[in-house]
Amino acid sequence: MLPSVLLNQSNIHDLLTLRLKHYGGTFDFKGPWFTNVASFIITSDPMNVHHITSKNFSNYGKGSDFNEIFEVLGDGIFNLDSNEWKQEREMFHSLLKRKSFKIFLEQNIQKKLENSLLPFLENHATKIIDLQDILGRFTFDISFNSIFGFDPNCLPYNYCNEIELPEIRFVKAISEIEDMLFSRHYIPKCIWKLQKWLNIGKEKKGKVAQENLYQFLYKCIEVYYKGDDDKSDSSLIKEIMMEGLRKEKMLERYVRDTVVNILFAGNGTVSTGLSWMEQTWGVDCLEFKPERWISDRGEIKHVPSYKFIAFNAGPRKCVGKDISFVQIKMIAVAMLWKFQIQVVEGHSVIPRVAVGLSMKHGLKVKVNKRSI
Ligand code: HEM
């Protein structure tokens, strides 16, 4: 299978979907013996997902291959197994469930909506914008503000001129790292390791991006250290530092790894696991039909998480799911209340080849103010 994957790199999602369909939802991915590509099983069958993520969870640790591919995440929660993972997960739970944090987060989202997103859309009424880029900036600002207590302004406040939004180096860095991480799944290990050693191709881009991101985070941590006492107690950084001290880890590294994990998590994560399969959702699976999750009596239909796997399932299910839904609902309500949003006719929506499932050409839309 490896040669066809390499020949179809730009189309890998479609290729894997066809294979899954052909083999009834599960197949064995094998590289040639000399390439060192780990042989792995690809599945979209909800019962297999249930078996792996819940019923036999302890048999399916992430393991050393995962750690090697995702080295950028360091010793953060995504890379941990067993007891270390359990402790880190407890820390995340207690961080995110604090009432003061939830209030802080909701206030941040509301402020950002009122001062950035809605004025931006108002300024761009009747024009074409890339909604994926705008919402990516919005969520990055929110995640960052939740961690450090200040807004990096990727989507600026009271933006009112016609100049294109500047590219943000560290946001771009995350997507370049994601590209590299995905290619490490299908390029033979000996080849990507050689590319890394020779410092060429995606490995070179990823390495530069990783250094940029780390440097930026070290600077933010330093600014936090040196800052005045007027810091928001509700942001996460103080608790993360205290946890690092408690665990007697190298503090800067612990904080860096934890923050990188949150930023990757908030950025969409490993949601390529979301398989939009005919076998799972029926023959109309490609149609936009939100009503498929609403019952005849107007109630939300419950779908088990091993079937709707976007947030993962079982003991490792996403700890940020609830706060993500708060954010999604607040943004959707605020936008749809004031604007009509229409995807530009003919705009091609295809997936980007990376670990996070985003759109290669963004989402070009036209925004019109609603007349009430
Ligand atoms: C729409 C947004 C999000 C989606 C689709 C999503 C999806 C996921 C998925 C699929 C996983 C499992 C990854 C794996 O085990 O390899 C995961 C884990 C995780 N997510 Fe999210 N996530 C989102 C937002 C967030 C946010 C905002 C946070 C904030 C802190 C967060 C925190 C985490 C953490 C800490 C884990 C690791 C859990 C563990 O390994 O025990 N996520 N998420």
From TrEMBL:
<dbReference type="GO" id="GO:0016705">
    <property type="term" value="F:oxidoreductase activity, acting on paired donors, with incorporation or reduction of molecular oxygen"/>
</dbReference>
<comment type="similarity">
    <text>Belongs to the cytochrome P450 family.</text>
</comment>
<keyword id="KW-0408">Iron</keyword>
<dbReference type="InterPro" id="IPR036396">
    <property type="entry name" value="Cyt_P450_sf"/>
</dbReference>
<protein>
    <recommendedName>
        <fullName>Cytochrome P450</fullName>
    </recommendedName>
</protein>
<dbReference type="GO" id="GO:0020037">
    <property type="term" value="F:heme binding"/>
</dbReference>
<dbReference type="InterPro" id="IPR017972">
    <property type="entry name" value="Cyt_P450_CS"/>
</dbReference>
<dbReference type="GO" id="GO:0006629">
    <property type="term" value="P:lipid metabolic process"/>
</dbReference>
<dbReference type="GO" id="GO:0005506">
    <property type="term" value="F:iron ion binding"/>
</dbReference>
<keyword id="KW-0560">Oxidoreductase</keyword>
<dbReference type="InterPro" id="IPR001128">
    <property type="entry name" value="Cyt_P450"/>
</dbReference>
<dbReference type="Pfam" id="PF00067">
    <property type="entry name" value="p450"/>
</dbReference>
<keyword id="KW-0503">Monooxygenase</keyword>
<keyword id="KW-0349">Heme</keyword>
<dbReference type="GO" id="GO:0004497">
    <property type="term" value="F:monooxygenase activity"/>
</dbReference>
<keyword id="KW-0479">Metal-binding</keyword>
